[in-house]
Amino acid sequence: MRPAPTVEETGSPESAPKAERIPLVIYVFALSAFALGFTEFVTIGLVSAIATDLNVGVDRVGAAVAAYAIGATIGAPILTALAASWSRKRLLLAAMIVFTIGNFLVGLSSDLVPMLAARFGSGLGHGVFLAVASSAATRLVAPERAGSAVAVVFGGLTLALAFGVPIGTFLGGIWTWQTIFMGVAVCGAIGVLGLAFLMPDAKDGGEPRDALHNLVALLDRRLLGAALITVLAYTGSFCLFSYISPLLIDVTGMDAAFVSTMMLVYGVAAAIGNVVGGRMTDHLGPDKAVMIVLVGLAVVLAAIWLAVHSVPAMVVLIAALGALTYAAVPAMQARVIGIAERHAPKALAAAAGLNIAGFNSGIALGSLIGGGVIGAFGLTATAIVGACAALAGISALILQRSRKLKRTGA
Predict the structure, then answer these.
(1) Which terminus in the chain has less CB density within 10 A, N or C?
(2) Pick from 107, 91, 111, 72: nearest CA to 184
């Protein structure tokens, strides 16, 4: 999902990892990352079921998506920076314990308010874990295996992001939503045990361990500007996608059983889009790749607004939305890391966390705005409002590019 961090020396040559195989604990990271991503997006596929069970509107249940994303937004850059003096093992364990308890409490919820509080708490753990896990993985393998280690970790997350919604929609027709969240809590508990027994408790080196240094880096206007584009892109996408199930059922007229298939189409397209986005970033550079994604999002969301009553058109457009949403991930992450390497090279982890925060705050903002739009104008209006958010992202990128060209004199 993001480029592998620079591998730094962690000790004497004798202490360097010599095993050729990737350690088992890194697969524990991947399982944990899958649970993190799954619980974030499974709620989207369960919106209708949760709304019916709690006897509230789907617009209010959308706040459950937002609450988790807000927690991840705070956790990724801020809590990670504040806990700079902690060992990675301690920080990862704390993150997964908080995440596991939060999902367990969601599974026990019978009212919306305690559910939202538990979602927020589990989101805090999500943000911290993802901001730390990749750099921890690189220190558990020999330098030449660092990229493979990070790929394993984020392979779990990518699978969850692509297939969390379709799996959740399918399971929602078999189990109660409480059972699904309890299952996520069990995965989290397995992750905790795996970390406790398999994660080496070694001192970390190379990165600044000063919380103030990391917090100050988060205020760099260039990094904030890059993260703003991530926020706008995901606000646009999730303004609509947070409510995709009721939109397809109530407006497009799809059969509820077909919606789970539609979510699978979205997931497959998202997985393909993630790969294509990475290659596009490599060949064109992050700025051009981000611009292509933003323009694509604006066009697709506007087309959904126009073609919302056509089932064949919506099949194509929802697939395109999935591909573009996840093509944005490597492009935007590479752009933020590139800016950090030039302007805040000693705070790359904090910068990566800032973009994770941008991703999740965009999801939160999109869910909240979408809920308000539904209450005022109906489900279909989420598409055109989402397109406007993507257009705002295009404007911000053009402005940032023009300022960069003026500074460099290019």
Answers:
(1) C
(2) 107
Single-letter amino acid code for the residue at 391: L
pLDDT at 210: 64
DSSP 339-365: HHHHH-TT-HHHHHHHHHHHHHHHHHH
As given in the structure block, the two tokens for residue 90 are 């301690």
Taking the C-alpha atoms of residue 398 and residue 392, their distance in angstroms, rounded to an integer, is 10
Q: Could you tell me if 63 and 118 are in contact, meaning their C-beta atoms sit under 8 angstroms apart?
A: no
Q: Are 234 and 242 in contact (CB under 8 A)?
A: no
Torsion over CA: 198, 200, 204, 209 (sign): positive
Q: And the tokens for 64?
A: 């459950």
DSSP state of 11: S
> What does the pLDDT look like over 344-385, one tens digit per residue?
776 666 777 788 888 888 988 998 899 999 999 999 999 999
Kindly tell me the sign of the dihedral angle through the C-alpha atoms of 52, 56, 59, 61.
Answer: negative
Euclidean distance between CA atoms 329 and 307, whole angstroms: 27
* Residues 6 or more apart whose Cβ sits within 8 Å of residue 331: 277, 278, 280, 281, 286, 289, 290, 293
Contact 174, 102 (CB under 8 A): no
- Provide, for the chain, the percentages of residues in helix, strand and coil under a 3-state DSSP scheme, each rounded to the nearest 5: 80, 0, 20
Rounded distance between C-alpha atoms, residue 249 and residue 190, angstroms: 36
For residue 181 the two structure tokens come to: 């969240």
> Which tens digits make up the pLDDT trace of 89-145?
898 999 999 999 999 999 999 899 999 999 999 999 998 898 788 667 767 777 656
Please spell the DSSP secondary structure of 44-85, one letter per residue: HHTHHHHHHHHT--HHHHHHHHHHHHHHHHHIIIIIHHHTTT
- Rounded distance between C-alpha atoms, residue 80 and residue 133, angstroms: 11
Radius of gyration of the chain (CA): 20
Alpha-carbon distance of 159 to 62, in angstroms, equals 22
d(CA 198, CA 228): 38
With tokens 């369960």, the residue in question is: 46
Rounded CA-CA distance 17/20 in Å is 9
pTM of the predicted protein model: 0.74
Nearest to 235 by CA among 398, 349, 120, 371: 371
